[in-house]
Amino acid sequence: MKVPIRTTANGTEYWDSEAKKILFVPAGEKPAFEVTESPESMIIGIDLSNGKDTTVINGQVVEPLFNLDGMTATQLREYAEENNIEVPGNLKKPDTIREYIEEQLAVDED
Q: What is the distance between the alpha carbons of residues 39 and 71, in angstroms, rounded to a whole number?
């Protein structure tokens, strides 16, 4: 599936979801591929009705992806608590807490 993502004076950029890359078509030229306009799989909305920042894709609530980089030890512990991850008390540095949380999240995905 190839969808337009940005148009400039020089042309249009399309995202190729199969090859996972951007394709550029110069202004005035037609793409040499089939373009999908507004695909349902790319419709994203934000639902703030429950008081939380919740992402909704195709009517399904999805867990937001958080960037743990730059969080303090306290913030990381709060994040862990919200996600039912018990951080051992001997972990003090943000880097070690972050690594532990990422390991636990990876285990939960399996």
A: 35
Q: Maximum CA pair distance of the chain?
A: 62
The angle, 0 to 180 degrees and rounded to 10, between the axes of the packed helices 94-109 and 73-82 is 20
* The token pair that represents 95 in the structure block: 């880097």
**Rounded to whole angstroms, how far apart are CA atoms 8 and 25?**
10
Contact 74, 83 (CB under 8 A): no
pLDDT digits (tens, 9 = 90+) for 62-101: 555 567 888 899 999 998 998 889 999 999 999 999 999 8
DSSP state of 92: -
Reported pTM? 0.41
Q: What are phi and psi of 78, to 5 degrees?
A: -65, -45
Candidates 34, 33, 62; CA nearest to 46 is 62
DSSP at 71: -
β-strand partners of 26: 11
For residue 25, list its beta bridge partners: 12
